[in-house]
Amino acid sequence: MTRRVRTLIVDDSATMRATLKMMLSADPEIEVVGMAPEPFAAREMIKSLNPDVLTLDVEMPGMDGLSFLERVMRLRPMPVVMCSTLTAHGAEVTIEALRLGAVDYIAKPTGTPEDIARDATLLCEKVKAAARASVRPGPTPNLTPAKGGGVSKGSIIAIGSSTGGVEALFSLLKAMPKDSPPILVVQHMPAAFTRNFAARLDGECAVKVVEATNGSPVEQGTVYIAPGGRAHMELATNGERRIKLRETDPISGHRPSVDALFRSFCPVASGSVGVILTGMGADGAQGLLEMRRAGARTLGQNRQTCVVYGMPRAAMEIGAVMEEISLSAMPEAILAACRAKPLGIV
């Protein structure tokens, strides 16, 4: 029998603790080994119970979730799934938690029994994925800034990521030079999060970072973050290159979809670079394969530096990735690909 994922719930609300326990205990692969009302009790339970995964509330008395997370990742690194409210403040704090090393997050369960059931399935998936994640002490260190210049005219970059992607994107985009080719990014996130995420990146990166808007021209030195939950982001290539937001059904459960982004790059593949980063599942694998077959250069984050080696592995297994790169080497590798001569159609 497979060992169950031993999970510790940390939340100051007795009702929320009971709800999370009910949701997690329904999965035979998860065992709730304890529940703590605040971080000081959680610290002792971590020592005595040795859980595999922690679910952590953002706002608690005595010590907030961020402060506790920072201590956990410094002193006893372990997979942490943040439990957040979908508010502007909740989004800002959760993004910081992901930057500090939390594996994933989930919105606090609310709504109808059907909503709770859907949230329960998602929570269990995230906890089990977190148990398999590669967790390192503290936030990902700053990468050496890549050198700009010499990039082929018309170069453009597409990046897809999911679980662990917030941390990876902070490191990668901060290392990109101010004159980088345009970069379009799909990171799986709820609608309430992407605007805060873009604003936070914009304050820390040499490149300009914005949440994408429909019809906006694609410009050098700018990163476009797909708005979460609302639409698929694509590159429109009729004449001037522009952002196209398409409010259609999710693709393989995702909206925005990495596959949709990558496929939209095929008409300009000869000047494109496709990059697939850490993430759970297989979104982006087929789209990246189509990019490569159309003549794009394609890169994948390697297993050793992924939080979850899911999306890059799926892409590698079907031949979509030309080369796997460590996160630290990724900025230079992307720009080197932009400087290289165009490839032919495969």
From TrEMBL:
Involved in chemotaxis. Part of a chemotaxis signal transduction system that modulates chemotaxis in response to various stimuli. Catalyzes the demethylation of specific methylglutamate residues introduced into the chemoreceptors (methyl-accepting chemotaxis proteins or MCP) by CheR. Also mediates the irreversible deamidation of specific glutamine residues to glutamic acid. It is an enzyme of class 3 (hydrolase). The keyword Zinc does not apply. Pfam families: CheB_methylest, Response_reg. Contains a C-terminal catalytic domain, and an N-terminal region which modulates catalytic activity. Its main location: cytoplasm. This is Protein-glutamate methylesterase/protein-glutamine glutaminase. Keywords: Chemotaxis, Cytoplasm, Hydrolase, Phosphoprotein. It catalyses: L-glutaminyl-[protein] + H2O = L-glutamyl-[protein] + NH4(+); [protein]-L-glutamate 5-O-methyl ester + H2O = L-glutamyl-[protein] + methanol + H(+). The modification 4-aspartylphosphate is found at D57. It is found in: Cytoplasm. GO terms for molecular function: protein-glutamate methylesterase activity. Residues 6-123 form the Response regulatory domain. It comes from Sphingomonas echinoides.
